[in-house]
């Protein structure tokens, strides 16, 4: 017979499962567009973001020390990942993420979780704002089907150019022409994806000596003449044939129309792509090792040029604006029961439907039918030529930023609910294991994400089951419904990130920091500016350095003001700041200015701290001053109760908490 306690436990379990199931659906709907958008912002295939979202749910969700926190690819890491991919190549991303994960896991084992929280709020908010500015600036270009520029500052400065492209007069072609242009964009986009994958496969088989002398002296270089690259050469030849077919279709479509400047550029770009792809195929067939990698890069670049000439920036801009408008309208005017459906999902669905119904010729999400084909395991040939010092530094940067963002997010999640509190070391270890798995699969690094986590709590999640299930739903959707994702316009996902970047800046945080003084605002501004002008690491280090300098100044600065009351023996000494042994000479100098036989009143309401050395100075001076007929008026009990409240609370006298003044000083104490 089941006891009442067991019945209650079963009822609670059933209630938890119900709430967690419903919450997992909400989190899945929030995570799906964000995983894809963050991948695009990071300069990696969409599949890499989706894989990270799946790992964040299934792996990290199972091990997490913060059960209601949801992990996945984060906007806060897009800038770092983009720089890593540009510097080391996509094939090295997995290795760097793997290193970051190992560092996190070791830090969790060594119980360093709490230390990652020891960062000034001004630096954290400045870091998030700087990342927000960078995301906003880069994705503004993607929102008009353009490519981000070389740096964050360039992206910011060239936003007017992106606006100008978006405001171009639309080409009102017929539906059949729009369908054809859309098909051509998809076809060439798929060819570019195949070319990128082929380039990576070639890079895995061909070593990367750093200079000509190393290449000539390499023992393996001579053996490469007999390297078997027939399968890769066959794939390159097939890409060339597909390009020829694309060029023929383009010419057939335009043979009855008057050639325009745009069509001429498209035809020239197609011819160039065919030549470059053909040359790359010949190099592979002939085992021309010296030319293989450069020609692969040129073939990829020529396909990107062909895509750029087919883009319709104004149509992409309209879809992006529509997406942002829907987000704002849904958040502002949707009925409360319906707000459980995330605004970004509504916006993406609506933009996708309009793009499909009108056959809008813009860029769409590129994702393979088989997600497993996008998995990139670390390659020994690539690792052999890696600059390991720089690679380790990149891994350390990702580990530090991801850990700080995760644990700060966990703290915020704890404030949203009354359930189990975060176990920081376990959470850090879980994040490390998740990033090890992501690195092994060549996916994006992951962190705890506040948007998904807050959605999880607000949707009524009770346990970690919700986060785990959201990863399962991502896996099922991506594995079985990849064709649906290919209907989503890239501009719509970029628009979500433009809005996300704006929210990360959060001007309200400046007002909140202002309550704690101009110094905090200055640290925030310096962190943001340095991140935008240089890079994330430099910006964070500058912020931490300024915060440390401010802390040093706070604990070493003492402002004093000695005021004489006319016609009276009363003298007031006001203290502001920190009275420590470092500033003891300043305090001693002020005390020496007090006239003999004066009645000195010390005002310490604006004093932040006083140490034993300064208290001892005051007591010794009081003895000497009273011996000459003077008087010190100081509320010792209030002073000790403020700066040593533990002993005051336990009933000890104020004088006992630091040092006992003699009877004469106590008698001079004001009531």
From TrEMBL:
Pfam families: STAS_2, Sulfate_transp
Membrane topology: Multi-pass membrane protein
Keyword Flavoprotein on entry: no
Parts of the chain that traverse the membrane: 21-41, 47-68, 88-110, 122-144, 315-333, 345-365, 386-408, 428-451, 472-502, 522-548
Domain MlaB-like STAS span(s) in chain numbering: 573-634
UniProt key word Membrane: yes
Keyword entries, A-Z: Membrane, Transmembrane, Transmembrane helix
Protein name: SulP family inorganic anion transporter
Source organism (scientific name): Aporhodopirellula aestuarii
